[in-house]
Amino acid sequence: MPDPRGADTTLRAGFLRSASRFGDRNALFVDGAHHTYADLETYARRIAATLLREDRRSSDAPKLTAVLGHRHLETFAGILGVLLRGDGYVPLNPVFPTDRTRAMLVRSGVSAVVVDASGLAQLEEVLTGIEGSLLILAPAEADLSSIAARWPAHRFLGSNDLADGRSLVIPEASPDDIAYLLFTSGSTGQPKGVMVAHRNVRHFLDVMAERYGITEEDRFSHTFDLTFDLSVFDLFLAWERGACVCCPTAGEKMLPGKYVTKHALTVWFSVPSTAVLMNKLRMLKPGAFPSLRWALFCGEALPAEVTQTFASACPSAITENLYGPTELTIACTLYRWDHERSPAECHLGVVPIGQAYPGMEVLVCDESLHEVAEGQDGELLMTGPQMALGYYRDAERTAAAFVIPPNRDRTYYRTGDRVRRMPEGQPLVYLGRVDNQIKIQGYRVELGEIEAIVREVSGADVAIAIGFPRTPSGADGVVAFVGTGQHVAGTDEEAIAIRSAAATRLPPYMQPREIRFVGTFPLNANGKIDRKALLAILEAPKDPT
Amino acid sequence: MDDPGTRPKLEQWIRDHAKTPIGAIAGDTPLLEKGILSSLDIVELVLFIESLKGEEVDPDAIEPDTFKNLDAMMRGFFGA
Fold this sequence. Notes:
The complex is a heterodimer. By secondary structure, chain A is of the alpha/beta class. Chain A folds into three domains: about 35-175, Rossmann fold (3-Layer(aba) Sandwich), CATH 3.40.50; about 200-435, ANL, N-terminal domain (Rossmann fold), CATH 3.40.50; about 440-540, ANL, C-terminal domain (GMP Synthetase, Chain A, domain 3, 2-Layer Sandwich). Helices cover about 30% and strands about 25% of the residues of chain A. The N and C termini of chain A lie far apart (about 70 Å). Chain B is mainly alpha-helical. The termini of chain B are close together. The longest helix of chain B has 15 residues, at about 40-55. In chain B, helix 1 runs antiparallel to helix 2. The interface between A and B is medium-sized, with 24 and 20 residues.
């Protein structure tokens, strides 16, 4: 649908258009109930109006509002409410340790937070140690008097304080404004905040809506948490065209087989690990999911075998592999699975990442950022309308990752992924990383971040995190090797203490499952710690005695 | 199933896979809620239960509440 000149092209626009066209259709299924576009819009408008009326921030404060929540109506209405007030949203996940959430809250510089019931449950821990004054809006809570009494520095608003949404005048937002700020793992221990602009995500949504022919009849999975940028596909692509987002319960996320059929999903989008999990539980029987039109995967390397099995479980669907770091807005290359052609195009049992999205440009470079010859391996760099603005308040790391290669006149983002430069028309294949970043269940993990935290909590000089056990997509978890010495003796008690302390600082998928103490680390030919040797130690068969 | 060893084996499995070291597990300790097990562990747990039972479990017939705690698992999978 063409936008008339001057119309809103920001992230909220698709939802608002759908709400005016399809007010009575369901926008969302969550916590056992459907919610129409009209109801969701009303709630979002009330949240927006409340924030605008009550959030007294200075004119140079960032146009960002946080949403602390997980799969409740208020989480979704909160995100839309933040966008309707003209801000970008900063999703915070109650599943993460409160220390981490607090750090992200403080770094984002927000002055207001919308919380749902799950966010409210841990809010007091998150607030502990925060300076300054926050506005906290819990739209579903009638009585906040006791928490407000314990935290006089902050202002608490609940359901009785919600403004009338009909009076809302939606502030303008520019295509260059931040639509969402998402923190990703940082190799030196500090997460990086990726600033994705409205024009970045607009481009992505337009490409996807067109490619997949999304209509108001579609029913979308929602397997990704809001702190994972792939969730933007789940929500905003559905809402772009009047479709319904079907939020799974915790049980359904765990055992997804029934989730697909119960909701008669038409669009499936998940990390490959979920397909692997479903396969292990024998849920991918041929023809099991007749309602699916699209089976899409992203987030980590996609194993060819499980792709074939999943495709046979949804005979009416087209299966695709999507690739893209957060910095290139959700996904920026894709590959269509064809059961005849694709097996030969796979590399080392992994499905190709395919072709760049329309408008996005690929450059495969050597270490000096010169383009490699055709057929050669190198680092994938990309540029185009989906390239994000950079890292929030971090000029140094932005400059390191967003570069102008020699003999080029544009900025490219260095993905750190290794690919092969292919002849025109042939799909790109993913070969691995250039650094110590791995994927765990699709989540991006800088091993350096885990190592920094383990060093800190143990007092050790050296800590090395190894992804283990390995899977075809990456790893399922992490084991930390800790060097013994002055501060670390290497006892069982220390191992327990280190694991417990690390668990308060890291999201569940990054918490080391095991601590191994090492007196002398094996070194490779370059004199650097030999990570391959450490992995071999973990993979060695256990001594039968 | 009447094998009295089933509950201790199940408890040991949980302890081995727990996110943080834990001691004895009460029958009604909420495993997922407390973060002792994650949803990722559930697949392996189902496979382990199948090995204990010596037969396949129909994953589509499993109620997610069955994994709430040890008592629920014993009731749901072993009728105990």
